[in-house]
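Page 47, continued from p. 46.
Same chain as before, 274 aa.
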Amino acid sequence: MDQICIKRLEVFAKHGVMPEENVLGQKFLISATLYCDIEKAGKSDMISDAVNYAEVAGLIKKEAEGQVFHLLERLAWFLARKILFTYRMVQKVELEIEKPWAPVLLPLETVSVKISRGWNTAYLSIGSNLGDKKENLIQAIQMLGEDEETEVVKQSSFFVTEPVGGVCQDDFLNAALEIKTLRSPQELMELIASIEKRLKRERLIHWGPRTIDLDIIFYNNEIIQEENLVIPHIEMANRMFVLEPLCEIAPYVIHPVFQKTVLELKKEGDEKAI
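Result:
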């Protein structure tokens, strides 16, 4: 991806663990690499089609000098979020914050913190078979969009699907979502759990009826196996209620374990059902 680089912007701010640092202040050098597509600006020669690096530098200076944090880690995280929220053309930002006057009482040139933050693409499966199913789905999607670190990019149609697992219950209404998020997989799972709680999901029967069910199907191209989180979703390749809506919005996304597209997995599921 194309890059716009700001190197060693000098600011005078009051970040530090020592109380005197918060009062007297000192020099910081901030470098930023912005990852974005500059093709449109390259063709049009219009600043409106570009990420204005003068504005970004001004934002960094204003925010760095207007806040007081103990840690460079916190300052870097804060600035990265500000840049990503303000300039939506920027897909990822790398920041280095140098502190040449760090009070360590040792002969060194500088200390610094480097971080990389960016928008992640995730695909979710969503379903309901209790109460007003459609309204439950709509509310859950709205709640996702209300989170400042998450944006709903695509939404499939609503599909009526039969329940699986052998529990006698009503049909489900299912859909798939593509989202962009700054949240880590664990943080995204926490957001999903909070939405399910707000919509009064109760886990009384395994594979039983529920007001809302939200699952992370894919997160970028990552393979995650943790005690409370497995991505890609372990059952998604066997679940037509996941594959059919997902195929509508992301047919050519590749399952990172099976190395097959969603469309290929759906076709295999269709053949098994015959």
